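A quick aside before the break. I want you to see a complete sequence-to-structure record at least once, exactly as it would be stored in a machine-readable document. Don't worry about memorizing anything.
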Amino acid sequence: MNKPDNSSDMNYLIALDERVEFCRDLLSSGDVPTAAEREQAAMMKRVVFDGLLKAIEYGVQKSELGLWADTDLGESVLLRASAISMMTAVSPRKGKHSLKDLNVDYTAVQLTLNPDGPEDARKELLGRLKFISDRAREELAPLLIELNSIPTAPQVEMYGGANSASGVVTLMAMQQLQEAGIAPAIWAFEPPQNEIFTGTIAAQATLDDQECKVLLVVDASLSPDNIDSSAITNESNVVELAATTLGVSGVLIGPGAYYRQLVQLNNGLIERGQAVESIASYLTNLHSIFNRSRAASKVH
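That is the input. The structure line, written in tokens, reads:
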């Protein structure tokens, strides 16, 4: 029996996975965190989840939100999200892909792939990813790929600059994945600073009437200090681009949504409730920008 599609209206996916090492980066723990440090890190993830719940109180629809977390420190927030039918995605454990216990909707993978990289390494990577993709589909938790393709110096020169090269290599990497039989249910990528390339990549994702969602990655600096105006402006630009690009459903929001708040909370600079409120305000602001931009555009 197939699961209901919890992602049909999902516009905002919050990444609360291993891209931030909560014990090491936030708590400055050693190589082997203590039980108390692990519990503190898990509590930090619950603070972020409470920020999502507060954003729902402020008008973001639950169906618009998704949560991507890990199966270690993030297990409790995944279970809470599933309990209220919020869309969930989880990074597969090392070598293990059984996700039935957590009842998640998607298997989520951060992937770095350069289409001109060493052929043997690329073939091995594509083979492993095809295995994960097939197993995930069998377990009714289809694949979500966050694709990162960093152009090399020769590619930057060949394609006329970093922005063009970023768009070309991302497009070529997506094509290679598709040719290998890997068809994720959700694609996410950091948009090149070129609207035409962004639209082309989004169109490639849905080539041959592939049914999938496309998200643009929004991420701010991980500095514990105040995020500067250039980072805020860039985030707003990405959200506006997502809202006005045909084929793009929404945004994947990285640690910029919560990292600074958690550092301040851990350092005793703010209270828990203030951290929750700040995270909720961040999300509702992006929600407002997205809705305003989409309403003013021809994208539906």
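Two observations worth writing down. The beta strands are 12-16, 65-69, 87-90, 106-112, 143-148, 186-189, 213-218, 250-253. The CA atoms of residues 11 and 53 lie 16 Å apart. We'll return to this after the break.
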